[in-house]
Specification:
mainly alpha, elongated
């Protein structure tokens, strides 16, 4: 009973609580995308930074789930054919027109348009780069 009372008073004064070790959502997403760094060799001691039993590390095969999103030749060809047949979405055509004008303000405006349609700044920048590449390809063609 005394221990429970002590715990309850400690919980009420604790400002951080159980969330101390949980990173905020953005930070967690950023950490998930980065590749794991190789662990340093164990020291064989029970304490310290590199504590633990000394073992020989096995070289593991790459997981199939890590391959998701990679661009294969076949996928690239399929996307290219689809782009030729279907063409551009209305917002993409508007972006093309803005980029063709060529001023800095219209370049920025095309990013704002892409951001609004696609949801994030990163996706918007990627789409703007894709569209500017398409414009330069059109200029090269004729």
């Amino acid at each position: 009973l005394a221990q429970a009372e002590a715990g309850s008073t400690q919980d009420s004064t604790d400002t951080v609580g159980w969330r101390a070790h949980v990173p905020p959502p953005r930070q967690a997403a950023a950490m998930a995308k980065t590749a794991k760094a190789a662990k340093p060799a164990s020291s064989g001691l029970a304490i310290g930074l590199n504590k633990g039993f000394i073992v020989t590390r096995r070289e593991m095969l790459q997981k199939p789930s890590h391959m998701k999103g990679r661009n294969s030749k076949r996928n690239q060809l399929v996307r290219e054919v689809i782009r030729e047949v279907v063409g551009y979405a209305p917002y993409e055509r508007r972006m093309l027109e803005l980029i063709k004008i060529g001023s800095a303000s219209t370049f920025k405006r095309s990013l704002k348009l892409a951001k609004r349609r696609l949801g994030t700044h990163k996706r918007g920048k990627k789409k703007r780069d894709e569209m500017s590449e398409a414009v330069s390809a059109m200029r090269r063609k004729g």
